[in-house]
Each structure stands twice: as C-alpha cells, then as structure tokens.
Amino acid sequence: CQPVPKPESRVEVCDLNPCPPRWKVTPAGPCSSSCGLGLAAQLVTCVQILHGQEVLQEEHLCPVAEKPLTSVPCVIRTCSYEWSFSEWSECSTSCGNGIQTRQDFCLSSLTHKPVNPLFCRRFPKAVVVRGCSAGPCPEQEGPLSPGAELQPLTPATHLPRAAAGSEHRHKDLDVPLPAGPREQAKPGGGEEDTAERCFLCVCGNLFLNATGIINMTGVESRDCTVAIGRPLREEISVTILESSLNCSAGEVLLFSGRMMWRTGCRKLPLSLINSRTNTLIVKQRVVLPGNGVILQYSSRTATKKYYQDCDQQLFGPQGEIVNPVQVPEQRQEAVCRTFITVAPRQRISIRALSTDLGPEGNHTHFNYILVRDVSTMKTVVFHGKQQFLWQSTGSQAEIEFHE
Question: Label partner for 30 (CA 20 to 30 A): which of 155, 159, 260, 282?
C-alpha cells in the first residue's frame, strides 16, 4: 500500500448503549466417569457488563433459546474392562415361580477375552439371579416351588413407615422421615386388604433405606413416580429385575438425577442405572393396566465427590435452613448449597424468616441467595434483606448461598 496515500487515523463513538445481558459459562467441572462416556457439570449464569463491571442478572433477562447446557459430555479414557454375562439358564421349575441364574466374567475391551475378575472390581455388576414364572401349576394350593422365596417382595415391606410425630428419625440420615401411607384396615377387611392398598400406593413415595425392592407393576395410576434418597456421600444403583412394559404402546421408564437423565423400554431387565449423586427419581408411564417394572436399588460410597464440604441434604417434611458456615480457606471459592428432596407427591415451600447479607447487601450483586426449582431448572435470585416465600413445582429444590 506504499504508493497509496494513507488516511488519517480517527476514533469515533459507535454506540453508547450497554451491551444486553448474556450467558456466562464457568469451566466444566470434573468428569462424572473415570472411563467411558460421562458428564461434566458447568455453572451457567446471566451477566451484563455495566460501567466496566460484570453484574449478575436474573436468568429471564438472557435469551432462553441460547442458554448453554449445564452439563456436557466428557470422556477421560476408554474403559479397558467390563462385566459380561452368559445366557440365562432355564427356569428352575416346570410350573409356578422359580429362579434363573447366569455366570459373570470380566472381559477385556481390547482382546474381547475373559481376564482375572480383579480387573473389574471397581465396576458395578448386575445381578446373576432373577425370578421367573413357568406358568400356573395344576394345583395352586400345594407347597411353594423351590426358589419362590427369592421372588421380589411387595412394596409394603419397603415403604417408609408413617413417622410418629417429628421425633422419629432415620438412623443413617438423621433427618425426619416424611409421613408414609397410613395403613388403616377397612371395616371387615383383613391383612389382604391392607396389602392390596399398600401394593397400589407405591407411587409418590420417597425411599430412604440403603437397599430395597420397589414393585411398580399393577398400579392404578398411568404415571407412577418414586424417589430414592441417601446421604450426600453416597450414590445409588438401580437394577430392573422384571419388566412388562409395552414399548410399541408408548410405555417407558424414566430415570432422572442432578447429573443424569435416561429413558428406556426395550431390554430393561438387568439394566444397571447409576445416579452419580445421592438422589434418583424414577417415573413409569404405562398405557395397559397391569404393566410395570420391579426395581432393586442399593447405595454405596460415591466414587467421586460431587458436593462442597459446606453443602447439606434435607429430606423433609419440614426444617430450618441456616446459611452454612464458610470454611476459611474456601471462603472465596465455595458456593454453599442446600438440597431439598421430598416425596414426589409433595411440594416444597421456602420462607425467609431472617435475611441479612451485610451492610452492603442492598448495593452489591455478589451477595445473594439463589433458589432453583430442579424440575424446571428455573432459578430466582434474592438480594439484600429481602423477605420472600418461594414454592416449587416439583419435589426437589436447591438453594445456593453466594459470598
């Protein structure tokens, strides 16, 4: 450009209006799986640049259609080993209820050959014994067939008992149990009537035991939802023992948690689902009467830490939430959260009795309380000394105490 005259440099103001609010994404957290496909959680907030400063805004001010995902797929490395199984054996009886068994072995994903089972010891293994039915026996009044005692129990055995006031507390969770279904006998009815009612009232319950079996077959409701809850340090594994869902009719089973979402219908029996966190919601949608699934769940210590030391978990039915005391060395980094999970048939109300975010609480955007409705993922932010009453649309909520 040397032969061409160079124009004079000049600066012009093009726009004095502030930039509109935009989505801000923090770097993704650790992958939820040590190998294979997992999920990495990331914090998505709505911010706006005002006078050279980044200011937090309410989410509805940012374009909803452009909101980034709160979790992204991640793969650290390919899993080298996995459990594999032989075919199921024939039913142990020619009629009535029996059992089926199968052999398990550890398989190398590289050579596709069995190796020492020690290589698979860190991976969850599906069940190797399940119930089966060979059809009705000619004499139903005779003794039970071998293996009949291994059949899944009815939910009446595993439903949470009605709490005797607020003093009854779970020995593991140390929180009040939600009131379970009341078992009142009908006039003239016996144990069969009570068992039948408990069999049909499994829907809408919260299960807090470490292990159990949930029978969702034969329920009257078209949509049947149950929840499983454990302390923060644990995660939940669910195995489908039996399934009579009609996939062609649109029947489906849905699993949802804070870090996972999965649906399925085909090849459900013996499928293994891991919650990756301490809560899991299972929703069953059926069209034909009598269809459903039987689940077996268990809990274990989480393989990865998914919470802050100042986080806490509440299972209701009522309680008081106090802003957790900040750990001195984490004061600038940690965001203290309170997770609330109640029975799916219930809803949550949160009332601010006393709120004081400091003398500058009314003037800064860095001190605030964030309440999230987990079912819709909508959040509300409260600043300063604002008193509020918040109500959920689902059975799970999260509260974050910032700064």
Answer: 282
Residues 229, 291, single domain; the answer is yes
384 domain-assigned = yes
Host domain of residue 340? 312-402
> Worst-scoring range by mean pLDDT, 36-45, 113-122, 184-193, 344-353?
184-193
- Domain boundary among the residues 30, 57, 76 is at 76
- Same-domain status, 317 and 295: no
How many domains does one find in the chain?
A: 4
Structural domain contains residue 2:
no
Model confidence at 149: pLDDT above 60: no
**Domain check: are 48 and 101 in the same one?**
no
Residue 306 placed within a domain: no
Do both 282 and 356 map to the same domain? no
- When pLDDT is cut at 50, 70 and 90, the band that residue 143 belongs to is very low
Tens-place pLDDT, residues 195-239: 334 444 789 999 999 999 999 988 878 889 999 999 999 999 999
pLDDT in tens, 264-286: 888 888 778 899 899 999 999 98
Q: What is the pLDDT of residue 227?
A: 95
Does residue 213 share a domain with residue 268?
yes
What is the per-residue pLDDT across 161-175, written as a single tens digit (0 to 9) for each? 333 333 333 333 333
Q: Which of 21, 37, 38 is nearest to 29 (CA)?
A: 38
Question: Where is the domain boundary, 279, 301, 323?
Answer: 301
For residues 37 and 96, state if they share a domain: no
Q: Is residue 151 part of a domain?
A: no
